[in-house]
Design goal:
The protein is mainly alpha-helical. The protein has three helices and no strands.
């Protein structure tokens, strides 16, 4: 589950590095405004990479979620059923 996020993060950060290095080495020779534009785009990519690297997928467990086991699930179902019966008896 972490491999997908790590791969996305490193792809975006690699693109950022390529943009910055290419702007500083050879794009500035042909066009200074284009090199500045590449640097601005490279400046915007690290926050996007951080968001991609920290976004939880559908299958990912969050850090404070307890693992879902069948006994816990059944206990919650039976407790909800008992609570419903209690409410019916009070009426």
């Amino acid at each position: 589950m972490y491999a997908r996020r790590r791969r996305g993060y490193f792809l975006i950060m690699g693109g950022c590095l390529v943009l910055f290095v290419s702007a500083a080495t050879f794009v500035r020779i042909w066009s200074l405004p284009a090199a500045i534009a590449l640097c601005v785009v490279a400046l915007l990519l690290p926050p996007i990479a951080a968001i991609v690297g920290n976004t939880r997928g559908k299958d990912d467990r969050w850090w404070d979620e307890p693992p879902e086991d069948p006994e816990t699930r059944e206990a919650r179902k039976s407790q909800a059923w008992l609570d419903e019966l209690e409410r019916r008896k009070r009426r």
